[in-house]
Amino acid sequence: MGNLVVAAMPVGRAVPWALKFLKPVAVVGVAAFLLIRFPQIWPALGLERIEEFGKKIATRKGFCVFLVGLSLFVIRGAGALLLGVPLPHYHDEFSYLLAADTFAHGRLTNPPHPMWMHFETFHVIWHPTYMSMYPPGQGLILALGEVLGNPWIGQLLASALMCAAICWMLQGWIPPRWALLGGVLAVTRLGLLSYFTNGYWSACLPAVGGALVLGALPRMQHGACTRHAVVMAIGLFILANTRPYEGFLLSLGVAIALLAWMLGKNGPGVRVSLAKIVLPLMLTLIPLAAWTGYYYYRVTESPIHMAYDVNRETYAMGRYFIWQKPWPQKTYNHAKVQAKFEQELKEANESQTLRGYVRRARKKLRDFWQVYLVAPLPFVLIALPCAVRDRRLRVPWMIGGIFADGLAIEVWFLPHYFAPAAALLYLFLMQCARHLRWFEWRDRAVGLALVRAVAVVYVGTVILRIGLAVTHVHPEKEWQHGDMERAAIVKELDALPGQDVVLVKYTPDFDPDREWVYNGADIDGQKIVWARDMGPEKNQELRDYYRGRKFWTVEADGGAMLKPYEEKPVGAVRHDFRRSEQ
Description:
mainly alpha; four-stranded mixed beta sheet; disordered N terminus
C-alpha cells in the first residue's frame, strides 16, 4: 500500500518521502530481529510484565475505557501546564471559537452588527444573525472549556472521550487485550501528537460519534438491548452536529448492516426489533433532532437551513462535490476574501478534469497517511490480505467502502473529514496485527516479534518526543500550535489601558488559510476589536462608531509592526513582535 502512494507521487517528492519512511522500517526491522534472535530481551526489559499486566486489566472492559481516556487527559493536560495551551491558527478554528463564545454567553446566536462589513471574515455568517457557519457540536464542547477557564479544556475533554470511545468500540469487535492496545495507539497518535487535540478543529467529537455508532452495532447484534440503541442514537446526534455529510456516510453503512441483520434469518424478530432497537432509537433521536432544528431556526430562521449553507450561498463559487457546476460570480467587499474564494473555484474546476482529480486524490491520500498511518504503524498492513478475507470484517469493510466512496467525490479533504471512521481504521489495524501475530518462519515467531516491535517503537517514539518537549530540548511542534504573531499583539494591547481597534492590512504573500480579523460573540464589549483596513473614508465610519477607542494599524505577516492609526500612518511605535517572540 505504501508503494502505491510512492508510485503516485512525483519522483522528486517520492524519494525524500521514501527515505523518511525507511528510517522507522529499519528501526522496526532491527528491533524485530533482536527479539527473534534474543527472545530473552523481552522479559529482561520488563516488557513481558507490562504485556501480562495489559492482558490482565483488559478483561475489565469498563475500567480500560476509563483508563485510556484518563491517561490522555492527564498526559496532555500536564504538557499544557508546562508549555501552555495551543493557540488558534486557521479560519476554521476562529469560527469554532466564535460559536463557543456565543454559547458560553448563554446564547444560541448573536444579532447582526451594524458595522459587520468591517469585520467580515471566513466561515462566519452575518445575516440573518452573526454566528459561526459550522454545526454546533464543536462550539458546545469548546464553550464548556471556556466556562471552565479556557476553550482548549473542552478540546482536551473531547480528545479524552475520543480515545475512550475508540477503545470501547474495539471491545465490541475484537478481544479485549487488542482493544486496549488499539486504545493506547489512539492515545499516542491522535490524542497526543496530532492536530485533533492540539488545536480547535472539529475532529475529536466526530470520532466520538462514529465510535459510538460503530461500537453499538455488534453489541446490538449479540443481544438486542435498549441501552445500546440509545448509545447509537447519541452517536448519530453527535455526527449530525459535527460533520453531517461524513457522519451520514458512516451512518448509511451502519443502517444497511443493522437492517440486513434485523430482517435476516439470524435477526431478533420484528417485535423485538421494534421494541428494543427502533423505538429507543426514535425516542432518543426525536428530541435531539428537535433541538438541532430549533438551533438552526434561531440562527438562520429555518429549522432545515444550515448556517453552512447560508455562508456558502453568500460567498462561495466553487461547489462541494466534483460534478456540481459553480455558483455565479459573487461580489466581494474585500480583496483578500475574493482571492480566497477564487482559489476555491479554481480547485473545484480542477477536480472536474481527470488529471486534476487524480492529483487531488493523491494529495488526499498523502494527507490521510501522514495523520493516521504514521510510521511504523503501517508495518501491520503486511497482513492486510488476511484482514480483507476475514469474514468477521465483512460488515466493517462494507461500511468503510461506502465511507471512502463518499469522500472520493468531495472536492476538498482534510484528515479530520475521516474522523467519523477513525475507530473503524483502528479496527482494521488491530485485526491486521492479530493476523500478523501468528505468522511463523522456520519455527520462529516472526509475526509476534514484528507486532511487539511496532508497538514498542511506536509508543517509545511518542514518549521520547514528549520527554524532549517537556524538557525544552526539542519543543514538540504540535504542542506549539497557533498564530504567535497575532497572539503577541493581543498580549501587548492587553497590557495597555483602554480599549482598542486594530485595522488589519495584508501582504500579498499572506497565507490565504490564515486570517487575523476575528472577533468574539460580543464585539462591542471586547477590549480589542479586529477590523479590516478599508481606506480612510470607510475607516472613518468605524472611528465614528467607536469613539473613545484607540485605533491601530498592522500589516499581517509584514513584521507585525503595530502603529497608531492616522490617515497617513507615521512611525512605528511598537517593536517587532515576531522577532521579540523568537
